[in-house]
Amino acid sequence: MFTGFSNDDFEVFSVPGLDARMEKLIELIRPKLNMLGADFAPQLSILCGEEMFSHVAKHARRTVNPPKDTWVAWAKNKRGYKALPHFQIGLWGTHVFIQFTIIYECTNKQVFAENLKNHKIPLYRLVPGHYYWSMDHTKPEVNKVSSLDESSIDTITQKLLNNKNAEFLCGLQINNDDPILTDGAKFYRLVEETFETLLPLYQMSFES
Q1: What is the DSSP string of 141-164?
Q2: Residues 6+ positions from 193 with CB-CB distance below 8 Å
Q3: Would you say residue 2 lies in a domain?
Q4: DSSP H helices in the chain
Q5: What DSSP state is assigned to residue 25?
Q6: What pLDDT does residue 121 have?
Q7: I want to staple 131 with a disulfide (CB 3.0 to 4.6 A). Which of 41, 113, 127, 154 is the partner?
C-alpha cells in the first residue's frame, strides 16, 4: 500500500550531482511513482471514458544537470504522454503537485485554447479558486485561479494559440510539510477529488 511521501523523498532534490541524485530518486521516489501510476490508471480510465496509461519520468536525456522535480503522468497513449493532454502527480523539493497538463509538444493545445476562449463557463468557475494555474512546467512558481479574470484568460488563450512554446497547467500544490502527504489513504482521496475536478479541462482539450 502507498504510505505517502516522507522528508527523505523531498531531500532527494538537495543531493548534489546528477548521478548521486538520480540514484536516490530511483531508490526512494520512483517506486512510489510506479505505485501511483498503477493504482490510478484504472480510475482515470473510468473517469475519462478511455484507457489511460501511466508513464513515470525517467530523465534519460540528462547528462549534467540533476532533475529539480519528477513525476508520473497518465495519458491515453501507451507509448507516450508529452504530445497529449495528461494528468500528473509529482514532486519538487518544496511540494507535491496534482495537475492537468498541456506542454508545448501537445498537439491538442489549440483545441484546448479555442474551447477555453469560447467556453460559456470561464476557467475560474470550472475549478476552485485555491487551485493554481501556470504556463511553464519547468518552474515551481504558480498563480491562484482566484487571481484570474476575463482579461487574464484572454492572455492565456492568445499565448496558447500563437506561441508554439506556450503551456498550460492547472491543479493543486501540497506543501512538503502537510500531514496529508504522510497518510496514504487521505492522499489518495485528495488525488481522486482533484482529478474529478480537473476532468472538464481534460475534456475541453479534445472537444471540437
Answers
A1: --EEGGG--HHHHHHHHHHHHH-T
A2: none
A3: no
A4: 7-11, 18-24, 30-48, 109-118, 123-126, 150-162, 184-204
A5: I
A6: 65
A7: 127
pLDDT, one tens digit per residue, over 84-107 is: 999 999 999 999 999 999 999 998
- Residue carrying C-alpha cell 520512483: 30
How many domains does the chain contain in total?
1
Q: Which of 160, 172, 174, 164 is CA-nearest to residue 205?
A: 160
Residue with cell 483545441: 111
For 177, which DSSP code? T
CA 52 – CA 86 distance, rounded (Å): 9
Q: What is the DSSP letter of 65?
A: S
pLDDT of residue 120: 58
Q: What's the pTM?
A: 0.94
CATH of the domain at 12: 3.30.930.20
> What SS3 class is residue 171?
strand
Range of the domain at 68: 7-204
